[in-house]
Amino acid sequence: MTINYSVTTLAWVAFLVIWLVVDLPGVRVVPLTVASVILVGLFPLAFYPVSKTLWAAVDFLVFRSSPDYVSADPADRAPGNGGRY
């Protein structure tokens, strides 16, 4: 959720800057608002699978790549499965 929110915010800020560069000095507020609501509403839905994958990769790299990692799943700790218990 954090990755998705952050990337959506960055995408909206980039969109806003481009819109203002193109539309200044007479900024049309209603089309900007409608386009912003559409972007902020649809972008997180489209980016969700990517953000979920990125978060899973971060979780794996931070926690599960440690040699001291012990799984909470009993099937992973079963005898003969390389478990520590």
Task: Summarize this structure as a short list of keywords or feature phrases.
mainly alpha, 0% strand, 85 residues
3D structure, described in words:
The protein is mainly α. It has one domain (about 1-65). It is built from two helices and no strands. It has helices at about 1-25, 30-65. α1 (about 1-25) packs antiparallel against α2 (about 30-65). The longest helix is centred in the middle third of the chain and has 36 residues, at about 30-65. It is elongated, with a radius of gyration of 22 Å.
SSE map:
Elements (H helix, E strand, L loop, with lengths): L1 H22 L5 H36 L21
Helix pairs in contact: 1-2
Short summary:
The protein is mostly helical and 85 residues long. It has one domain (2-64). It has two helices and no strands.
How many helices in DSSP terms?
A: 2
- Percentage of helical residues? 55-70%
H-E order: HH
Low-confidence stretches: none
What separation lies between the terminal Cα atoms?
34 Å
Taking all Cα atoms into account, the compactness measure Rg is 22 Å
Could you report the average pLDDT, rounded to the nearest whole number? 83
Largest sheet descriptor: none
The overall number of domains is 1
Question: Globular, elongated, flat, extended or rod-shaped: what is the shape?
Answer: elongated
Secondary-structure content class:
mainly alpha
Tell how many strands the DSSP assignment holds: 0
> Beta-strand level of the residues, as a percent range?
under 5%
